[in-house]
Amino acid sequence: MKNNISGVGVALVTPFDGRGEVDYQALGRLVSSVVNGGVDYLVALGTTAETPTLSWEERDRVVAHIKEVNAGRVPIVVGLGGYSTQEVVEKIHRSDFNGIAALLSVTPYYNKPTQEGLFRHYEVIAGESPVPVLLYNVPSRTGVNMLASTTLRIANEVPNILGIKEACGLIPQMSHILKYRPEGFKVISGDDCLALPLAAIGGDGVISVAANAFPVDFCMMAAAASKGDVGKASALYLQLFEAMEALFEEGNPAGVKAALAIRGITGPAVRLPLVEASGALTAKLERLIGENGLK
User: Fold this and answer.
1) Annotated catalytic residue: which of 136, 237, 257, 284?
2) Could you tell me which residues are beta bridge partners of residue 79?
3) Is 109 among the residues known to form the active site?
């Protein structure tokens, strides 16, 4: 098994069948597709997995199935977060971390903690987690932005912190973290469209939504960027970017599930309160996938 969390991680969707049940056969196809397509690690139970709509039994079974199909080929990161620190700790204690490389934990949402509250939250979680913790900052969803100064404070003062999935969308904020981070602290893009610019300034890859549907092309782009081949990386980015933008036009993961259905890997179904991609978006994605030969 690879054990270096860098390069391209894929935030796996959770496929559902026509009855709204988890489609484990499709999940297996997806895992095989992305691993064979070149991703460096898998991320289970993240935002893209529609995790809040999954029961605890489903969550456990999803992770177990991903482990089984992956068969140790690449590392697995599992998402586990919440707006109650104590509840997150309880979730950690009941979870099976056998075969799990790291824990991805989003900043508390809804209650909008202060920067001091964010620091203390991660201090407690890192102390309870049996695997390294990857911070996850996504203010567009949580309502609070973890500032670079807080991220760096956690990185320098809290043991068992692997790095951050940074989805603030602000290159200056990410640049500040990159410039002043301690040795070994990973800075990973949480936005597909910012993977290339972050790589150019020394970032450690991306946790991608698009790599569910286009793993080969996306991984080729990321690999070229990491090697400093700007020409190849830029050409691949321009081939991908319209489809990547379209994936988010009607929310995530409705768009990427439509793309996966077009490619015959999983179905388009999502669970309420999300709804499937419209016919117009599906047609647009089908056109972009065909015109650009995405795979």
Assistant:
1) 136
2) 104
3) no
